[in-house]
From TrEMBL:
<keyword id="KW-0472">Membrane</keyword>
<feature type="transmembrane region" description="Helical">
    <location>
        <begin position="469"/>
        <end position="489"/>
    </location>
</feature>
<feature type="transmembrane region" description="Helical">
    <location>
        <begin position="239"/>
        <end position="257"/>
    </location>
</feature>
<feature type="transmembrane region" description="Helical">
    <location>
        <begin position="295"/>
        <end position="314"/>
    </location>
</feature>
<feature type="transmembrane region" description="Helical">
    <location>
        <begin position="117"/>
        <end position="136"/>
    </location>
</feature>
<feature type="transmembrane region" description="Helical">
    <location>
        <begin position="66"/>
        <end position="86"/>
    </location>
</feature>
<feature type="compositionally biased region" description="Low complexity">
    <location>
        <begin position="694"/>
        <end position="707"/>
    </location>
</feature>
<feature type="transmembrane region" description="Helical">
    <location>
        <begin position="403"/>
        <end position="423"/>
    </location>
</feature>
<feature type="transmembrane region" description="Helical">
    <location>
        <begin position="263"/>
        <end position="283"/>
    </location>
</feature>
<keyword id="KW-0812">Transmembrane</keyword>
<feature type="region of interest" description="Disordered">
    <location>
        <begin position="671"/>
        <end position="707"/>
    </location>
</feature>
<feature type="compositionally biased region" description="Pro residues">
    <location>
        <begin position="671"/>
        <end position="684"/>
    </location>
</feature>
<dbReference type="InterPro" id="IPR046671">
    <property type="entry name" value="DUF6541"/>
</dbReference>
<feature type="transmembrane region" description="Helical">
    <location>
        <begin position="213"/>
        <end position="232"/>
    </location>
</feature>
<protein>
    <submittedName>
        <fullName>DUF6541 family protein</fullName>
    </submittedName>
</protein>
<feature type="transmembrane region" description="Helical">
    <location>
        <begin position="501"/>
        <end position="520"/>
    </location>
</feature>
<feature type="transmembrane region" description="Helical">
    <location>
        <begin position="430"/>
        <end position="449"/>
    </location>
</feature>
Length: 707
């Protein structure tokens, strides 16, 4: 992928994520900084509504339908903004209008315009660092995400782009086609699928190709996070551009978010959801800071946008919406406590109740559509623990890619934490951030250092995953670190020994934080964008050759070795687009599992021959390595000995077989030596060879095959 193509794709992904929602916020009456930060959450809400509407009306989800929904939302926002401005003008008659960029609880003066713009420019420059690092790590957005979840995310994005099916329960064909209750939030995939409609031939290196679309969305996830958390920090610290710059540098250098979750899993929808949390908190702060002279109309717009944005967060990943709600609840409590009088308290309370209406309505609707028990798997799942309680507590502060970087972040965070308590003007704005630090920190320690059913009562909604809590914990950590920079470098800091010491400490910490930038590219590749285990360089060659040779039919593949990526890359349909679950028959059906266990007897076992022809299987591809699973498919043993499977492309990483025609009415025949006449009881182990041999002999069984 050329540099120009990479740049165009990144611009398109950023515009797709930010512009629709930002335009809605501007139309509703928000200032441009708030609109840019809150915009992504509103964009997700637009996509969620668009997916529901297109599914209900049997209209394909595509750029045209998405644009229609966005224009409708923009019109509604414009009407809301006009009504709010008229109402506020009447309520404020005779009163001095409040300045938008000033926080009600700060006594500091607004910095000169020139200084503000310099700070804004520095924040913008720092926000591009994650995109640059991620672009380099993914070799110009061309590297395939290597781990388990990426199989599904790539296939789901391609499926929506091809079919236009983006309803709540429409993704079963790319994960569990025989499961009538399958559900996975599809807003991320629906949004990313729009990038596949850009001009181009659809090949992996084109503007509208894969994995470029996934990687571009991941890259701009980091950009939006840095922008959002920087603006949020500046607002909570009384409009301080210094705090915003400090937060931007810490966010751009943080490892636990966004980089770790973009590699581990990769948790792409979850990462996109966490990215919009700062925008939601910015809206929540506007609702919480009601004063005696604040008109009710001033709260209505941010409250409604907060509710709609939270619905958008729910649509991309319900656990993110719950995490955001925890912090917003802290904002509501802090706002009620410090509100000066009954009327402001009622205004704050009414604002948050109003915000809960659209968010609650969307959540209730999604739950009504889904079958009961659809989320039970998350509640029952538990990851193994690899550290004790002490180790969990220590790693809760390990947000950098190196020990030096983490120490710098922690010192700044502690300074900000002290300032949040000691500085009167910051107590209300930062109270919810401190609350989030405590809650997410406790949940992280529970998920990393404790095991048991009682732990899952608190952590199960986030899949009992310490990496998800580490990502959530990054939000308050970065905000408090930015506040720490501002606290260590107060105005007039050039005077006095203590002030100079604070400046020196802040600079040293920021340099330590920035030093982690040198390691990010290497770490990202190790964690999810290297040469395997899903798709090695040799496998990629065979996958691309299959894309060129393909002339119809379905490809039988190993669901665990990464060959499923041929569907996302080249739109070649595969039998198993995602890894298998604990109950594969319930997931994909007995017919597919018969081929999984017995394709090697094609042409010899009439029932297998019939199944191959019925399902139009014309290709078989065998890769190497694996992302997990019980071992190689039993039906892959001895494929090289089957005369009705002709190798058409092969190297050390993969072999592609073409299925030759066979008379469907042939009698049962004994397969050649090397092909078991019955399915072995144990699956062959995962190896680095596309030649699959049987495991050590044991009594025969069918394992769901045909015997």
């Amino acid at each position: 992928m050329s540099i120009l193509t990479v740049a165009l794709l990144l611009v398109a992904a950023f515009a797709l994520l930010v512009v629709p929602g930002a335009a809605i916020c501007l139309a509703a009456g928000l200032r441009w900084r708030d609109a840019v930060v809150a915009g992504p959450a509103l964009t997700l809400a637009v996509v969620a509504v668009g997916c529901a509407v297109t599914a209900a009306t049997d209209v394909a989800w595509a750029p045209a339908s998405a644009a229609g929904v966005a224009l409708g939302a923009l019109l509604c926002a414009g009407l809301l903004g006009m009504a709010a401005r008229v109402s506020a003008r009447r309520a404020r008659s005779g009163r001095e209008e409040l300045k938008e960029d000033d926080d009600d609880t700060t006594a500091t003066a607004t910095p000169p315009a020139r200084r503000r713009w310099v700070g804004d420019l520095v924040v913008v420059v720092l926000s591009f660092l994650p995109a640059v690092q991620f672009g380099i790590a993914t070799r110009g957005l061309s590297a395939i995400p290597q781990y388990w979840d990426a199989f599904f995310h790539g296939a789901a994005t391609r499926y929506i782009a091809e079919t236009g099916n983006a309803g709540l329960t429409d993704l079963a064909p790319v994960s569990q086609p025989e499961n009538p209750h399958f559900y996975y939030p599809d807003t991320y995939h629906a949004l990313t699928s729009l990038l596949l409609h850009l001009p181009g031939d659809g090949s992996p290196g084109a503007l509208n190709g894969m994995p470029g679309a996934l990687n571009a969305m991941s890259a701009v996830t980091g950009v939006v996070f840095v922008l959002g958390v920087a603006v949020l920090t500046g607002r909570l610290c009384g409009g301080s551009r210094l705090a915003a710059v400090g937060a931007a540098l810490v966010a751009a250098s943080s490892w636990t978010f966004p980089f770790q979750v973009l590699g581990w899993g990769p948790l792409l929808p979850f990462a996109l959801g966490v990215t919009v949390i700062p925008g939601l908190l910015l809206l929540g702060d506007r609702v919480a800071r009601a004063r005696q002279e604040t008109a009710g109309a001033d709260v209505v717009v941010p409250a409604l946008l907060l509710g709609v944005g939270t619905a958008g967060a729910w649509s991309v990943h319900p656990s993110v919406a719950l995490a955001a709600a925890i912090v917003v609840a802290g904002q509501a409590m802090a706002g009620l406590v410090v509100a000066p009088g009954l009327r402001p308290r009622l205004t704050v309370l009414g604002g948050f109740v109003l915000a809960a209406l659209p968010a609650g309505a969307y959540a209730a609707w999604t739950l009504s559509v889904l079958a009961a028990g659809v989320g039970d798997g998350a509640a029952d799942f538990s990851w193994p623990r690899h550290m004790g309680v002490a180790g969990a507590v220590v790693t809760a502060f390990d947000h950098g890619p190196s020990a030096v970087s983490s120490v710098g972040m922690t010192v700044l965070m502690v300074a900000g934490l002290v300032a949040a308590v000691a500085v009167r003007q910051w107590r209300r704005p930062l109270a919810a951030i401190v609350w989030a630090l405590v809650v997410f920190g406790v949940l992280y320690v529970l998920s990393a250092g404790f095991q048991g059913d009682w732990v899952r009562m608190f952590t199960g909604y986030w899949w009992d995953d310490m990496y998800r809590f580490a990502a959530l914990l990054a939000v308050p950590t970065v905000v408090l670190a930015g506040a720490g920079v501002r606290a260590l470098i107060p105005r007039g800091s050039g005077r006095g020994t203590a002030a100079r010491a604070g400046v020196v400490l802040a600079v040293v910490c920021l340099v330590a934080v920035a030093s982690g930038q040198a390691l990010l590219v290497h770490e990202v590749r190790i964690w999810g964008y290297g040469a395997g285990p899903a798709v090695t360089a040799e496998e990629r060659i065979v996958l691309d050759e299959l894309g060129e040779l393909y002339d119809g039919g379905v490809v039988l593949n190993d669901p665990f070795d990464g060959t499923t990526w041929v569907y996302a890359l080249h739109s070649v349909p595969v039998m198993f687009p995602s890894p298998l679950s604990d109950d594969p028959v319930a997931q994909v059906g007995g017919d597919r599992m018969a081929l999984y266990t017995s394709i090697n007897r094609y042409g010899f076992d009439p029932s297998i021959t019939h199944e191959v022809q019925r399902q139009d299987v014309r290709w078989v591809i065998v890769g190497t390595k694996s992302v997990g699973g019980p071992g190689r498919p039993g039906g892959f043993i001895g494929l090289q000995y089957n005369p009705y499977l002709r190798p058409v492309a092969e190297n050390s990483g993969a072999i592609l077989y073409e299925v030759l025609p066979v008379d469907a009415d042939h009698p049962p025949l004994i397969p050649p030596p090397g092909i078991p006449p019955m399915t072995p009881p144990e699956q062959p182990p995962n190896t680095d060879s596309p030649i699959v041999e049987a495991a050590p002999t044991a009594p025969a069984t069918t394992l769901g095959g045909t015997g």
